[in-house]
## 1
Amino acid sequence: MSNKVRTVLFWGLVGLLTFFIVTGFCLRNMQMTYQSLGSHVVTVMYTFDDLEDLNRKYGRLETILDESLWNEFSLASDSRIISAYYRFQNSPTSVDIISDDGKVVVYRLINDYVDPSRVFICDYEVFDNKVVSLREYEVKGLCWGTEGVW
Amino acid sequence: MEFPRTWMLILLAVTTLVVGVLFVFSLVGFQQVNAARGQVKQPAVVLSLLDELIAEDADYEEILEKYVVPNESTSGLGSMRDSLSFSYILDAEEVTGYEVIQSSEGYLEFALLDEAGEPTYPLVVFAYVLTDAGDKIADYSLGRLQPFSRLHPEYGEEWN
């Protein structure tokens, strides 16, 4: 093999290797973002020792949520605290994620005032690394087949 | 001295091959996640189950036997029948159809439609696992979706 061919082959392989590494890294990052953003939002929202602790940590959501969504879910108004957090009676709360498929997070809440068998759902949409839509539900009247999916 | 040396080329070729295979796996994984983010076409068995349950003269017992693997305790089947009869949301005869709100693999959220074709609340969630053959529902969880916030327009105190 001539030296010229060897050189072309060498730099060709280096270029291909660089392409695989850079593109693969970006794809992996995007995949992880899609899959974990919903879980991250739910974890920030419902992991706290008390309301003071929640207030301290809640600001992290501002960079993840779309502006209009942040306005809706911000703790600036008492209505969000009363409607979503009153049930926790200001006691330590954490989240047990059951699944997150990039669109729907299914989870349980660990809190002295919340029955551990209750199942919660958060539907979300991600665009440009930000959550642009968020809908939170509790599953009521849950029934199941043999063991159930959750 | 020749550059690049033969052993360098071989090492580089092998490394490129290995990284290339990993890249393909990344690409496939990304495509799967991307596909999951879009509306997923639900399996025929799930859609047929809902279509038949919503029909006016639905025989729940027969439909469930046709689409759902019976479990050891019949109470599971019974509770699904009770829940899917929609009587807890509306009278069965008032349900004219359903509208899929959210779907992913093994997961379906839908709103039942009233006589005017308008969605009714609460939404219904149906998570399921199919049999290996994909022709029956092996296991499931089913419930209503009560908004987390009491201020949400879909929130209904009567569902608590």
## 2
Amino acid sequence: MAEAAAHEDRVVWAPRIAPGDVGVEEKEEVVQGMHDAVKEFSEVRSTTGTYGDRTIRQTFLSSEGAHVETEMTRTVAQVHFIAKAEGRITSRRVRLGATGGFELFSDVDYRQKAREAAKVTVGMLRAPSAPGGRMTVVTDPELTGVFTHEAVGHASEGDLVAAGESCLADKIGASIGSPLVTIADDSTVEGGFGSFPYDDHGLPSRRRVLVDKGVLRGFLTDRVSGFRLKRPSTGSARAESYAARALVRMTNTFMQPGDLTFDELVEDVKEGVYAVGSRGGQVDTAKGSFQFSAQEAYRIRDGEVAEPLRDVSLTGSTLETLSNIDGASREFAWGDPGYCGKGQWVPVGDGGPYLRIRDAIVGGSA
Amino acid sequence: MTRRSDLLATAERVVESAMVRKDVEGAEAFAVLDHEIGATIEKNAADLAQTHESYGIAVRVLVKGRLGFSYVTEEDEAGAAVDAAIQASRLSKKIPFAFPEPGKAKRVAGLWDSKLDAVEADAVVDAAGAVIDVVAESGDRMNATGGGVSSGTTHWAVANSAGVAVSHRQTGLTAACYVVREAEHVSTGWAHDSSTRQDVDVQEIGREAARLAASTQAPAKLSGAKVRDVVIRPHAAAELLATITLSSLSGRAVHRQESYYAGKKGDQVAAKSFGLVEDATVNGGLGSGPTDEEGVPSRPVALIEDGVLRRFLYDQATAAEYDGQTTASAVRAGGLDGRSFKAPPIVSARQIRVEAPQTSFDDLVASVDDGVLVHDLMGVHTANTVSGDFGVTSSLLFRIEDGAVGDALAPVSISGNLHESLEKGIQLGDDARRVDAGVGFVLPSVRFRGLTVTP
């Protein structure tokens, strides 16, 4: 394994409001509140709400002398709903989650968030399918985050790089995209869904720069892949539970903002698509191709966001797409918290600015 | 290992102990012991054999018409699970529920292979090594970068206060290989196979993955987005059907208006030639078993027959809630990939048979003038399972021109609506394979008409 200091530490990330001190009725109220908000729309036919909180106490000991004890809490609530009208049917999920406690529900107006999602989803019901083909696409911060995670994050995972399954394998120091692209993974983000004080090899949390102004600067590594790649661990070892071995995983992955406003991004797009939110995605890290689907989408016509489009998916080559980014907004946001699957599921955060991508491939009807 | 033979006795004891508790009207215990030995392939080396054993007891109690659930991982903590389940019942809603009565189950052969029960870690590592060797011998710059071989056993038992006392055991073997060929272009190949018996040709997995990597090394580019016929290989086709069609046939989804099929019982929802049958009594099926995981005997259920929507899938709780009848479709979370006792049963298809006009694989291809042959699909999980709309990517595919398989193609996006595809009618080849798509299938390649293919 890659050399690393043996740490002795005890860290408690105490939530402002411990979920254990909150009655089950109040927790039910969160789910009920999100349910009621989406049910304000008559097209919403069915909802499934869930609430969960989890306090994790973990001790890491090694024969090298490490002794790290950590305690942290994650809280999450979501509502999934189905909307129907005129023979059309669609679904949507709204999720709130953080590394923290019940304060999440006073910090965020969850009812309003659910209501807005329902309003947009209902509007999408009557939308036509997207036109398929290559066009300019503007992504919102959540979708930018998912692209960053799927296309760049996974390909920079040291275990995949060492296995020969990454299109970024021999590209450290090389330009892999537009100078507007700066990407980092940061497990120290306060409240971030993927944050932790120590990784599952007992190494401290940190910020890891992957791409700096278009140039590939690093990979994510644990001590095993670090050894194979002759690089130090970046503290990226995460295991789903005690019953699984730690793998190289992302934490909170994001693209840095740029200097344009949203209006400036859109105004010189003659014909394109504005894609918002994510239904998830997948990537072939070896070939460097990706696929993800948007929650909602709109046509862009003559520099204006126009009518809605349903079921838009984006695909493409990672490197080509990174080179085709020609604008990023100064506004930055984290998307809905997610769970990343790689044989094991771990909580992650993704975020970024609004992004403009030229010549992106939109899946839809021809 | 003494726990293995005692699973049913343990489950019955837990039920007895629950039934003496105040207000408990019914109880069920599910005890499970999983054992797995696995070797992973990482860059031409068989790496880290791991053995994994998990044991657990899941408890459901019915208290004043409300179901409560809990689980523990140690036998002597079963009392705590009963306490927690009783407490949890207070939060759930009242349904007209009764635990299932015992029934006569048909024997299902081919689910247990004593050779797999006796497999040692060395043999699993050797098998992974054999896959790697085959890949290395298959040509220059061929790297087996991922995959592995794993072998395992599952023993479970379920008992309830209505008299169900069922135990079951099953073996499993899985081999998978991901090949990356780094020449002028990077090309990849992927193959896998699963079985309940030791009849997986692990070397063939390596050969198949290497063949795909070799044959896709100089992909041509398709020009322009166009509606085309698409022939999809068994694994990818099964994933599409499981994700969209089967999830829409769950009684829960239907009654909650979360399914395209809600309100369509008796309607023509697919071409007359199309049928879909849940049948977990198929010998050796990856999702087969004499009973479901509530102990209800398996039997064939025609879900779609001659294109007409006939039945939905139910477990006991969903049937009780929506006035249906169980179709022996209770699984303990997630189906084939890792049974878990950590959640109450959910409704899922277990072993599916697809009925459609069948021809040879060659004739299937020959019937396509301008289309693609697809080996993999990425992003199926992002499909809109309710509307049936999907937009996925394939990066292992070939052109079909004038009825013949031609050049490998660069990745494309494929989109369409699966419900509409079934209405138009699908056609099957004769290259049927066992497939684990979360649901067990025996499925050949499938031709779909009129999907949008975008380069």
## 3
Amino acid sequence: MKDDELAYTYLVGDAELSHDAELLGLPGVGRGPVRALSAGGLAALVSTVEARTFGEEALKENLERLPWLEETARAHHAVVEAASRRHPVVPLRLATIYIDDHGVCDVLERNATGFRDALDRIRGGRREWGVKAYLTPAPSDDISAAPEGAGPGASYLAQRRAARDRSDAWRRAAMDAAEDLHWHLAAGAVASRLHTPQDPRLTGRGGEMVLNAAYLVEDRDAERFRQAVAAWNDQHLQLELTGPWAPYSFATLDES
Amino acid sequence: MTVAASEELALVDLLDRLLAGGVVLTGDVTISLAGVDLVHISLRALISSVDKLAEQQP
């Protein structure tokens, strides 16, 4: 690597990852070919990127540009996805970048035990599923919306108050239903994690997101898990299932 | 219930995982993003692009 280049790091896996010809040479972030580095009995997939784009200052600016962020995120994901279909892998956070290959090998050696524990937690075909639940509109909303000037003011206000109470009760019931759903699904999963519900401006849907959860599920239980989501029927919630994903939400070094 | 095809991953779902998940190697990474809230940055980038779209549509 030259002085104006950096090592973009995607994931950590077992040592045999470094011999998988299907993965080496895949286009990475910035289109550089994916390479493998080995240290500490582990392997990391990396690719060379330019410092003028991925250096500290440039990176902060680039992350704010949506087309750049999207291209980088999708390229990062493509490498993680390809590797995770063939090996247990621990994905690293987007934009994990080292000055050179030595930096990557250092971190493999220093965190070897943590990475091995993390790999053991997702070994044997454990994949991540995402479940999002959206609040459905309260059925009485249309009826309760009294037209302007319909009747005396006091009656109008009472109607408005009743509508608001119904909507509050509906939302509370939806939150309870989402919690029930979460515990129901978590019981069929190895682990679960709650993400922050997505901003309604980004989901492209009218209903508020009341659950944004990730579940780590054994491959042999995946069909049962999908069916559990499909069979969950609650009028307060509309569900969306995504996956299977590489175990992004369950790759951590600190759990024991 | 709808099931998203993995070929058409919504960016917002992807960023949920790439920016809130994955191992963070604090202190080891040469390019330090310490103190930079990635999730916040991406949300800002996403929302400003959504707002721009909305402005373009009268």
## 4
Amino acid sequence: MNNNKPEFEKLNYILGKLAPEKTSDNFTNNVMNKVLTSKAPVADKSFLYTIVALFSLGIVATVAVYIYLSPSSIMDKLGFVNIGIELPELKLNDLSGLLHFSKIGEGLKAIGWTASILSLFTAYYLYESHKTIKDNLKSKKS
Amino acid sequence: MIKFSDIEIVESVLKGNKQDYSILINRYKDKAFTLTNRIIKNNMDSEEVLQDAFVKAFFALNKFKRNSTFSTWFYKIVYNSAISYVRSKKAQEDAQTNSFEDYSELTFNESADDIYKSFNNVELLAVIDRLPLPNSVIVILHYIDNLSLGEIAEILNLSTSNVKVILHRSRKALKTMLVSQEKKGATI
């Protein structure tokens, strides 16, 4: 092949001077319009994964809070037997403290469930918009 | 004016500066268009396919691994998009009509070295268009996009030696075609 080098010297010179063809004037604007009007962000997937991870975390946290704060109902359902503990020296103040703690738990539970449901809707919305954009791109191609 | 590297622009776009993508578009649109036009052989369709390739590349930017250059990664998307389009339109048959073998069989005229210097850009591209698909693409990627044989091999999924052989044959065929075309022009 080296013997052919001088043979192609002139051709290489000519081809080396080849200039690219020009696209239409509004080419860049057209592409940028397509890119900017699209709802999907560049890092849409990582964002979606974050939402899914948050949602899963919310579910796990809610279930954990629920189990922790409702030992009687959950344990009953799971077949555990409640053991009555006698607290002969328990004063009224101690009982009010327990009731207060229980109220906080109920509040946490409600927040947990609300967050989970909101996360579920957000995740579903993001999934749908991502799917729509993908479909639009496919239909444009075809 | 500061010239940012492709990687710097990609990172900026990924950080949310979507407008910066226009720098990459302006940098590659004409060269990529010359490539798609060799495959599709129709200006409007080539532009449409190239626009879609740019959009596709934008949404896949987070998948771009830094182990290859942006141009190699991008041209791979452009090439595959153009090939898919041609296949879907069944235009491949037309492109294959001018078989490379026809040109490789022609004898090479050593004494006609100076004849084809009068060809302009459009005429040269028209001659390149007469090469079969892989050959014309390799010539464009090598001479217009200034890609190395290794980068071309990566884009086309070929071995470097294979690209080298095809490029050599393409040059040989081009020279023959340019000489014969010039002779035809001279006799008219």
